[in-house]
Specification:
single chain; six-stranded mixed beta sheet; 13 strands; about 30% helix; globular
């Protein structure tokens, strides 16, 4: 498992990888989990958390409510006594377990969504989870004893959010994609122009590393290059 450390002692651990990355953020006193992975990954996620002696998770941040990020949210809440954070634009989906398939951003994914989108959305509905904190703007986590905040980064979905840790590391969900070489552009997004604006917001932070839910870490330079290519389109 990959681990990053900030100057103030936070550890960001990629606690689960594969279909969708899950990150554990800890300062030794408080634990934050970012996303939860698909249902089939629950046993591995639970086992990996226990391998780090995690018996209590304080906050669960859902970057958005597509099935591969939230299918285990109700299990995490039940087993780890967590407070669940979600953007207000995603509240309906997490409360009802409805999966909304995003729009495609290239010829293949647009065709896929156009022909199979409704079926795929229904196929991947998930067990509902009741959120505890609904956000609609920048949200500081200092009152929880954490030098971190939630930053709305819409575009992939209307209610996508990122977690900014120590102003050094951004955990960005699907706002960025880490699978393709020399690109951070995701294959799915509901609003490309809004997505690119969200990249600009991420670049305005002092973060130098960006951890996406799919693929590997991206640097500020990589994000800046893609932003420069697309900002005026």
């Amino acid at each position: 498992m990959k681990i990053w450390k900030t100057k103030n002692g936070f550890k960001v651990i990629k606690i689960l990888s594969g279909r969708s990355n899950v990150f554990l953020v800890t300062n030794g006193k408080k634990n934050i989990l970012v996303d939860t992975s698909p249902t089939r990954k629950w046993s591995k996620l639970d086992r990996n958390l226990k391998s780090f002696n995690v018996s209590k998770i304080d906050l669960l941040i859902l970057t958005h409510t597509h099935y591969d990020h939230v299918e285990n949210a109700f299990r995490v809440k039940k087993n780890y006594g967590v407070q669940v954070f979600v953007h207000q634009e995603e509240e309906y989906f997490i409360r009802t377990g409805k999966n909304k398939f995003p729009s495609g951003t290239n010829l293949f994914t647009r065709f896929l969504v156009r022909t199979l989108g409704a079926m795929l959305s229904n196929k991947f509905n998930f067990s509902p989870c009741q959120p505890d904190v609904i956000i609609d703007s920048v949200f500081s986590l200092k009152k929880y004893g954490l030098n971190a905040y939630l930053l709305p980064t819409p575009g992939h979905s209307a209610g996508s959010i990122s977690l900014i840790v120590d102003n050094e590391i951004a955990i960005v969900g699907d706002a960025l994609f880490g699978v393709f070489k020399n690109s951070v552009f995701p294959p799915f997004a509901d609003d490309i122009k809004t997505l690119v604006k969200s990249w600009g917001k991420l670049l305005e932070t002092d973060c130098s590393l960006y951890l996406p839910a799919h693929g590997s870490v991206k640097t500020k330079e990589e994000v800046q290059q893609e932003f420069n290519r697309r900002k005026n389109r």
